Amino acid sequence: MRARSLWDKFKERLFFDSATGFSLDTSRLNYDESYIAKMEQKMQAAFEAMSRLEAGEIANPDEGRMVGHYWLRAPQRAPSPEISSEITSTLARIKRFAAQVHSGAIAPQPGEKFTHILLVGIGGSALGPQFANQALGTPRDPMSISFFDNTDPDGMAKVVLSIPKLEETLVIVISKSGGTKETRNGQLVAKSAFEAAGLDFRKHFVAVTGEGSELDKTAVSEGWLERFPMWDWIGGRTSEFSAVGLLALALQGVDVDRVLKGAAHMDGLTRSRESAKNPAALLALAWFHCGCGKGMKDMVVLPYKDRLELFSRYLQQLVMESLGKELDLDGKVVNQGIAVYGNKGSTDQHAYVQQLREGLNNFFAVFIEVLRDRSERTPQLGRLKGFAPEAFSVEPGFTSGDYLLGFRLGTRSALYEKGRESVTVTVTEVNEESVGMLIALFERAVGLYASLININAYHQPGVEAGKKAAAAVLQIQGQVETCLRQAGKPMSADEIAQVIGDTDSAETIFAIARHLAANGRVEVRRAERPCDDLFSVA
Fold first, then answer.
1. What is the pLDDT of residues 11-48, one digit of tens each?
2. According to the model, what pLDDT value does residue 532 have?
């Protein structure tokens, strides 16, 4: 009997959607052909859990919340008419607001137009819009965009100073709770920039937040331009198809209906209860196989397209925040998760493929292939009407796109030769529908995989712990500054710790004092060893 070739495996395992040209290839995974059947009972339980989730079951018991990002592209599936109506009416408001901004009906001043967006957010409130902008933005968009996605003063200054015309900039501040400190810091810095330029910031600011939140109250009391909702049943990492992502996309001129259509189409494919015909199930099973159901291998995401460069960063939050959990649903310590990293092809040939091929076999790869070299979102610019790099040859008979294909196939083969497993996801081109499909595919795969390993994908206790720890540090900083003012003499970190009665925090106190000194807020007298430095009020 002839041994099964890779071509045989490819033909048997390839999932293909004829309506869109999307495909998923698992032929470079080393499971035997009984694997899917062996996992079927677990997969059926995962399908049932996903069905209950979409029907409105409380999926985040820590906060008593439903999880409803799938309803955003299928409002008719929402568990109540009220939620369905909120989704459809908000989408209509987003499109109407964008149209009024583009026409100049909503403007900073009569006769002017908004031409730039400054989006202020962090985590999912920034990563989704950043990825979508990278994938779908063009030079001809009616509005360009930049981001405050951190609380780094230097980074924010660089962004503000790079904005072409602050007076034509619309600021979108995104925070569901309204209490996210990084976002609030960005909001206040942006406000200060407008005031320094003699501009009325209220005519430029828009909020995307939960009703009644701190940010919502601020926007009402200060008379901001507009407010859009962020519902408690939407998590930041799954918020791209809410106002968080759609508002910026609509303002940039992207057809948001097409994005939602792509996501809805993928949802339809991934609702199949037959694992072999469900791409999200196949992806979740691939993760389970590669990591032995325990996340024992990292996922390296390799998109072979510049427009998808940020997809690995987007997936870092979606996958790692959802799956990185200490406890399972039964309260047992399991320390689950899948670490995600990646860059883009063929940049990876010159970065870390050497280690992937010959270093530790502690990963599996997810290749993202785009068949069409040119995106429909890349217009021909007037002065370069004949410029089409995807069409001309860089060598006789070969284009740069041919080389990109060669590098992708070569890398996959080189890895497989060394026992490194991979999955390949293919879309025809980068456009609104395919971006919607890719996001929806991985959202569903995360949910199904979480069921396979018995964890809650929809809460983030580790993130909350980090926020509480940061708040504790800021509280200590206040004590340090008070101590130095009252002491009236230089003090070491050890001495400050003794005075405030927290000797366990001496290292934290030293880090705080050193930061204050570096920024001219306290004075420092250098000792032979840095930890013996003396600090005093400047």
1. 999 999 999 999 999 999 999 989 999 999 999 999 99
2. 94
Rounded CA separation 527/492 (Å): 10
pLDDT digit string, tens, across residues 184-229:
999 999 999 999 999 999 999 999 999 999 999 999 999 999 999 9
Rounded to two decimals, the pTM is 0.92
* Number of domains observed in the structure of the chain: 3
Checking DSSP bridges between strand 333-336 and strand 325-327, what pairing results, if any? antiparallel
From the list 40, 203, 467, 481, the catalytic residue is: 467
Q: With a cut of 80, say whether residue 64 has pLDDT above it.
A: yes
Q: Which of 226, 321, 369, 433 is catalytic?
A: 321
Cβ distance 114 to 225 under 8 Å?
Answer: no
Residue at which a domain ends, from 459, 475, 490? 459
> Does the active-site annotation cover 214?
no
Q: Which of 332, 350, 385, 468 is catalytic?
A: 350
150 inside domain: yes
112 among known catalytic residues: no
Residue 53 pLDDT: 96
Examine the domain organization and report whether 137 and 199 are in the same domain: yes
Distances (CA, A) of 536 to 493, 506, 530: 11, 16, 15
Structure-derived torsion over alpha carbons of residues 302, 305, 308, 309, reported in degrees to the nearest 10: 70
Other CB atoms within a 10 A radius of the CB of residue 434 amount to 27
**pLDDT tens figures, 333-375:** 999 999 999 989 988 777 888 999 999 999 999 999 999 998 7
Question: Is 217 annotated as catalytic?
Answer: no
Record the tokens describing residue 26, joined without a space: 């698992």
State yes or no: pLDDT of 63 exceeds 90.
Answer: no
Residue 216: phi and psi, rounded to 5, are -60, -45
The DSSP output letter for 2 is P
Domain-terminating residue out of 399, 425, 459: 459
